[in-house]
Amino acid sequence: MSVENLIQNVDSQIINIRTKSLDISFNELYDMYKNNELEISPDYQRLFRWGEEKQSRFIESLILEMPVPPIFVIETDDGIYELIDGLQRISSYLHFRGERLGETEDDFLVLNGCDIVNDLNGLIFDNLPKALQIKIKRSFVRMEVIRKDSEPSLKYHMFKRLNTGGELLSAQEIRNCTIRLLGPDGINFIKSCSKNKDFISVINKIPEEKIKTKYDQELVLRFFAVKNDIASYKYPITEYLTKYLEKITTGELPFDYEKEKDIFEKTFNFINNNWGKDVFSIKNSNGTMQNKFVSYVFDGISVSTANLVYKILESSHQKKLIEEINNFKESEELKSYKTGSINGIKTRIKLFTERMEKILDSK
Fold it and tell me: CA 315 from chain center: how many Å?
């Protein structure tokens, strides 16, 4: 590519991003939120993780007139601003003003952990002297607005580059928030599948802490990505899963939602009815079943079953198939392909599939 073409390509993308900058007070942000003019989606609210001490120190920073990093919003078609970066800061201020954005928060944030002005500790907003209430209301922050006439896909890529504060989020939590900038269908489908009763039953050994970070939804995404687009698989898997979700959301990769839902439901119904809660676990050396979810077994059994599910449901050899898979998942051969490498994941699915097909094709 010539230098001139490269410059033109960059300029054409710049044209597609429309922005404006505003200096806005936190009191204006509060009023906008109360009037539904500033939207914080449920997905974002569930990611609000600053503890009360960290929230308190942010409030202390506002009172002391310390600089505050800019926040980013997207302008929707009806003029509403949707917050995409700055959640922790805005949520801390709203909590201090009595707005609950999390399941465990009190109505008002009680300041604690302020380490510059210790006398602030123990106070709520209503207890502050009037002068300090006014000071904090009038604190300003720069708001960068991505205009509604910007290219949607570029909004999405901009969000992926914005992560200026807050606690670490899981890859799936970030996907849940960001992908909606490209469209809701893909992520809504993944969430719906994750609520399937059979699926929930067979992944029950996943710790609750991981479920809270949407690991169950990531497993659904992993199932479809490996089943439908293993040719694009790359290690590490995080970016591969994100790319797959992007492709089905934008339509770059065809995805028949009705058919895929039917395959998913039939696959996990068969797995649950015939293997149950131990299906994705392996045995200890003493022969007892581990209370642990094994992802490489999940790949092998779920994807191979899905690829053959209609044939399996019509087969008279289901019992024999189940016995064969039970034996193979404990084998040393399988364990040699348990890594997340390209060769590992492709080979273990191939090995599971070959064993299933051999049983199904037997007379």
Answer: 38
